[in-house]
Amino acid sequence: MKFAKIRYSKVKGEIMKEKISFKCLPAFIILGVVTGLLIGIFKKLIGFLAGFMDGFLATGKTDDKLLFLGLLILIGLLTYFILSKDKNTKGSGIPVMTGMMEGTIAVSSEKTIIGKFVASVLTIGSGLTVGREGPSVQLGGLAGDIVGKFFPNVDRNLFIGSAAASGFAVAFNAPVASLIFAVEEIFRTHNFSTFLSSALTIISATVTSGLVFGDHPSLENIPAFGNIDQKSLALIVILGILAGLSGALFNKVVIGSKSLYKKIALPELVKYLAPFVITGLVLLIDPRLFASGEELIYLPSEGNEELITLIYMYGAKILLLALAFGIGLSGGSLVPLLAIGAILGNIYGSILADLGLIPVEMIYAISLIAMAGHFSAIVRTPITAIILILEMTGGAFSNILALAVVSFVAYLVAEIMKSKPFYEDLYERLLLTEKSS
């Protein structure tokens, strides 16, 4: 039994048809199991290190604070050594994976997967404002590349892309959103073979991770909200505009930080350690800014913060992410951009509540809706954004119409602002760097 396979090359603009044997399909199930275990262990180690580092901040003791700062610098030195040995371990990893699939970047998967794993655990777990999803996608893609070498008659891109999508699935426990992400961002095309290989890998990875490490949504204990009244959709349209503008600002600041770092005339090691030292000092003053910011999503359910504090947190998280992302630390941006989107929604919802336009309890719903808009504006995958929020909240949040409105309005605003899609911009910059070197 044979299935037609179509591979789309964004560089050459070609579509090639090949055949994939039914006998190869179990390989994608095995690949899913491997990816589920790999990313599951990855998440656990990050959580363990983050808890360890956060423990020093929680005591409030001077000695523990100094030890925390010292450990951050040590982690910076260790990860600098790893990244200097293999440039493909830098950054989120998704552009590198795209280059692997398009044949524009040469990667030694067996070498890179080890360095990426270790560097990402250390960087993300240390408390810097970076997320786990980009490295999870790259680690999955690297695992797929390794497995694909055992099946020379099958286009290796099927293995790389399917495993990359499964890394996204395990990172967020969002299999459906990951399948759509594979279509919208990874393969950039759809046919039966890409669907079948991705579905098999994603499902087996998600099931494996759930059985071994526990099956629970990324955002737990989210209360069930009533649907947003259609009469209130005008407020959601305004939120979509704000999310689109924020997304354009996010891309400008975060990606623009890469150009800024290149202009700074300092030794590379000094520039590399700067995010660890500066973030460490900021965290000593305000531990609430620790790590990617997932905890900030829960602010509306925990008594919330003053409006001025929310505005400060919004700006601080963008700058801390830019600080880490610009120099190419091994970490992603999706979790921070979701957290920043939630803060944006919290600000907007708090203003609406102060004006008496919504009840206070709806601020939380507005912040969750804003996450989808922010994701859509930055990454330009609106359908993934909608489904991702539904799955991250375990189905407790079901305002699909509001999620759709904010996602598509934010997408449109970002397009009008001529803000490049986040990963497309990063990939173009990576290609320029490859050509210049």
Q: What report would you give on this structure?
A:
The chain has 437 residues and is mostly helical. The protein folds into 2 domains: 24-213, Clc chloride channel; 230-435, Clc chloride channel. It has 16 helices and 2 strands. It has helices at 25-59, 62-85, 94-102, 109-125, 133-148, 156-172, 175-186, 192-213, 233-263, 268-285, 307-326, 334-354, 363-379, 382-392, 400-416, 422-436, and strands at 2-8, 15-21. Strands 1-2 form a two-stranded antiparallel ribbon. A hairpin with a 6-residue loop joins β1 and β2 (15-21). The longest helix has 35 residues, at 25-59. The chain is globular and about 65 Å long. Residues 1-17 have low confidence and may be disordered.
What labels describe this entry?
437 residues; mainly alpha; Clc chloride channel; 2 domains; 69% helix; 3% strand; globular; transmembrane helix; ClC; Chloride transporter, ClC family; chloride
Topology of this structure?
Layout (H helix, E strand, L loop, with lengths): L1 E7 L6 E7 L3 H35 L2 H24 L8 H9 L6 H17 L7 H16 L7 H17 L2 H12 L5 H22 L19 H31 L4 H18 L21 H20 L7 H21 L8 H17 L2 H11 L7 H17 L5 H15 L1
